[in-house]
Specification:
Blueprint: H1 2-21, H2 27-46, H3 60-66, H4 73-80, H5 84-94, H6 112-123, H7 132-139, H8 143-149
Helix pairs in contact: 1-2, 5-6, 7-8
């Protein structure tokens, strides 16, 4: 709704600029434009008050994996060289391995899924795309931790 209203206001601003350039004053139209701009400001401020519940992604890699709007299926395939279901099947083969289980008294180990995703992204990249900083940035982990996941 806000986008549509912004488009209407932008159109009215362009028309007001044309009226100004042609030296065609219309006070009534100018008052309508000012009113619409004020309403747009109020609408933009109130959108945070009436926001419904939405999923907060804990990490970027979860968003990459599960959110089809963040990374489309084609984009996911081009990055990881596998579709999402294949990545999940691959993870199911290794997730119960003792390497991914926690050790009592130590910080919990990371999910096997992030290990699989980092490895697939690394193997599917070449040149500068395989740089640790780029891998970390895409998946929301530090570049120093990327080596731990590979």
């Amino acid at each position: 709704m806000i986008k549509e209203y912004e488009a209407v206001v932008a159109s009215r601003v362009r028309k007001a600029y044309i009226r100004f350039c042609l030296d065609d004053e219309d006070n009534f139209e100018d008052e309508i434009d000012e009113c619409m701009l004020r309403e747009l400001v109020v609408l933009k401020e109130s959108r945070y008050i009436f926001r419904g519940s939405y999923r907060q992604w804990e990490t970027t890699w979860e968003r990459v994996l599960y959110d089809g709007k963040y990374l489309t299926d084609d984009e996911f395939l081009s990055h990881f060289r596998m579709d999402r279901s294949c990545v999940m099947q691959l993870n199911s083969l290794v997730e119960n391995d003792q390497e991914f289980s926690g050790v009592y008294g130590k910080l919990g180990k990371r999910s096997s899924m992030i290990h699989v995703m980092v490895l697939l992204k690394f193997l599917g990249s070449y040149g500068n795309e395989a740089a640790l900083a780029k891998l970390g940035l895409m998946l929301g982990i530090s570049k120093g931790a990327v080596n731990d996941y590979i």
